[in-house]
Amino acid sequence: MKTVKVNIVTPDGPVYDADIEMVSVRAESGDLGILPGHIPTVAPLKIGVVRLKKDGQTELAAVSGGFLEVRPDQVTILAQSAETAEGIDKERALAAKKRAEDRLNKRSDDTDIRRAELALQRAVNRLDVAGN
Ligand code: ATP
To answer: Which positions fall inside the ATP synthase epsilon subunit C-terminal domain (predicted)?
Structure first.
């Protein structure tokens, strides 16, 4: 089975590094599936789930936007924050979700709303990856 090296990197350091059969991401332009040998490309990402297929199994990671860089033998995901399913603290994500929802219900000014919406998306994304 052909594989490609996938790295997920954040300002805090590397979060993931493995040889992968297929990786799929949520790019700003839509969902992208990357196989080994994919043409070089760069794409901005949404807050979303990264699916990493390895030995016939799919691992998940949560990323808070960032960039995808594809080279023929290497895929790099650069994100402000990223966690694998095991790395997610569910209680913290639930608390962040509640905080964001409370802020959105109060609705003070526009910048707060956008910020709360993004915090809510990050929290929901983490809960999706952590599973129930
Ligand atoms: P919170 O309000 O709980 O900090 P946040 O969405 O504002 O959530 P980020 O700014 O995206 O947090 O991330 C800050 C750091 O905390 C990153 O290193 C990120 O990986 C980590 N992090 C945030 N939430 C969680 C979580 N639920 N489980 C594990 N790590 C988390």
So the answer is: 87-131
